[in-house]
Amino acid sequence: MILFDRLLGLFSHDMGIDLGTCNTLVYLRGKGVVVAEPSVVAVWKGTNEVINNGQAVGLYAKRMVGRTPGNIVAVRPLKDGVISDLALAEALLRYFINKVHNNHSWSRPRVIISYPNGITEVEKKAITISAMRAGARKVYLVPEPLAAAVGVGMQTHEPTGNMIVNIGGGTTEVAIISMSGMVDATSLRIAGDELDGAIVGYVKRQHNLIISDVAAERIKIEIGSAFALDEELKIDLTGRDQAKGLPRSIVLHSEEIREAIKEPVAQIVNAVLNTLEAAPPDLAGDIYTKGIFLAGGGALLRGLDRLITQETKGIPVHITEDPLRAVVRGTGWFLDNLNTIGPAFESSEED
Predict the structure, then answer these.
(1) Do 40 and 65 form a contact (C-beta atoms < 8 A)?
(2) Which end is more exposed in the chain, N or C (fewer Cβ atoms within 10 Å of the end residue's Cβ)?
(3) Could you tell me which residues are beta bridge partners of residue 75?
(4) Could you tell me the pTM of the whole model?
């Protein structure tokens, strides 16, 4: 059986996966990032049965959100970076493994998956189990901050301090890295989803208007900011009147959204400050010189870099190129170097 699995592995594409709360990205050796789709699965209500013969996953499922009959539900298998439904996480991973192998049932790839640094051993095990059941031959788990740091091009193997802040959909990871290890790290289950929820709540309280999380995300992307803008923005928004139950339109301004997300943004900034305070003096000096690097979708929030620079009393903050793909690029680096570093991160192997 072991020999048979290894033979199948010869015909499989090893994969690096950024398994995110909102989006899943897949890296293939020699090809780069080949898949970037929402981490959403559409199921029949009250079951774990994925509709359309298991194919209602990713973009297909995301398009169903808010537009499906009552007997179909679009579900995220992960919450705050952690698997909340093992069966659906397995379906999600199987979909992506099959997709890059053109649905060949014999594919048995080695898979590297990033994980939030703050999760428990039980939660790590859930990731491993889901990947193995989905068709992986071996599973390697890499801490998300380390993958992000490598993905943005930091020289993490050198004896100098590097600071990465990766803001995803479910978690914010703040870490100081030196000599290929994390000297100190903070994992905060406050990130993009929390900002969206704050916008939904604000619009409901201040305008008596009910909007979806999808609408809140669009507002955040189009006019959201963490710092005063040189030219403030506005957006037309339609929702359901809380009292009358009928559609109603309003105009929202960026100053309002900044107020709406003020609290979760402050918690993210405090996580950065607390991690900096815990840094050894020499590494703190390195960070002051080189700056702090932002990755993940949250790095695109307007003015967040300026706010962190202000609160850290002048430390430069850099938004990495293509921050949404920083983590998956990092898993790709580990994938490319798997033969030399793999044993340090290997999580499981099927007997």
Answers:
(1) yes
(2) C
(3) 41
(4) 0.90
